[in-house]
């Protein structure tokens, strides 16, 4: 089954390059491109992509606001959003993740990793590069005002079993399912089951949101 992709970026050259890369993959289809957040939201609602590649810095409605509009509110678009960013520049990436984005890509990502990231996001695996994603979340959390720092643990956190809490901690440390399985001496299918239960109990949509909960609840120190 082909994965439907929408590209949202204000640079025409970037949009063209991404389209050429993705259209060379047999299982990926670019259904549309857009040059700003408002056009991106409209295109997402019209073409119903599986994954939206979303730039952050755009004129008018930026990528952060567009992500919130697509994933929140009364009429979520039902797609995954992967943020396109230049590391250490876009200070709103953390907020995009909190808004529900499934992860992020650096704009200089190799073509094969770009395609892989889209497949991962479409499959519901939120973290493209777990260790890098964790560094990103940590860096931008440090830049938030103190009032936005770790807060009360959500009710679902108390419902986690000892093993589920351990899995959540390892997710927040940036480990993939395979790495968690190796660490805990269990099968990867078992880890996937634990992750699914963690998401359900925390009431979050994906792994990134679970990691955000772990950081904000102080489960994992930012300087860990």
TrEMBL record:
* Domain HTH luxR-type: residue ranges: 153-218
Identify the domain of life.
Bacteria
Residues forming coiled coils? none
Asked whether the UniProt record includes Nuclease among its keywords, one would answer: no
Q: Which residues carry this modification: 4-aspartylphosphate?
A: 55
Report whether Phosphoprotein shows up as a keyword of the record. Answer: yes
Protein name, entry field: Response regulator transcription factor
């Amino acid at each position: 089954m082909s994965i439907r992709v929408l590209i949202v970026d204000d640079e025409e050259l970037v949009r063209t390059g991404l389209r050429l890369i993705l259209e060379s993959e047999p299982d990926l289809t670019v259904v549309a491109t857009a040059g700003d957040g408002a056009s991106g939201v409209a295109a997402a609602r019209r073409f119903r992509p599986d994954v939206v590649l979303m730039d952050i810095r755009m004129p008018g409605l930026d990528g952060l606001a567009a992500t919130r509009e697509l994933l929140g509110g009364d009429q979520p678009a039902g797609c995954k959003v992967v943020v396109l960013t230049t590391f250490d520049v876009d200070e709103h990436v953390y907020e995009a993740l909190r808004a529900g984005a499934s992860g992020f890509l650096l704009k200089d990502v190799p073509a094969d990793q770009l395609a892989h990231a889209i497949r991962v996001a479409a499959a519901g695996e939120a973290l493209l590069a777990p260790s890098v994603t964790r560094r990103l979340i940590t860096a931008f959390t440090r830049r938030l005002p103190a009032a936005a720092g770790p807060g009360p643990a959500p009710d679902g956190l108390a419902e986690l079993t000892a093993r589920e809490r351990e899995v959540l901690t390892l997710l927040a440390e940036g480990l993939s399912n395979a790495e968690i399985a190796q660490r805990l001496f269990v099968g990867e299918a078992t880890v996937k089951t634990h992750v699914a239960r963690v998401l359900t109990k925390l009431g979050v949509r994906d792994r990134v949101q679970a990691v955000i909960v772990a950081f904000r609840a102080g489960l994992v120190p930012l300087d860990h």
